[in-house]
Amino acid sequence: MKIYAHRGSAGTHPENTIASFKATAKFPVHGVEFDVHMTKDGELVVIHDESIDRTSNGHGYVKDKTLAELKGYDFGGWFSTKYKGEKIPTLREVLYVFKDTRHHLNIELKSDVFPYVGMEDKVLQMLKEYRLESRVVISSFNHEMVKNFKMLAPQIETAILFMEVMIKPDEYASIVGADALHAFFPTAFRAMGKEAIASGRQFRVFTVNDEIYADKLQEIGVDAIFTDFPEKMYQFLNRRV
Question: Is 143 a catalytic site residue?
Answer without folding.
Answer: no
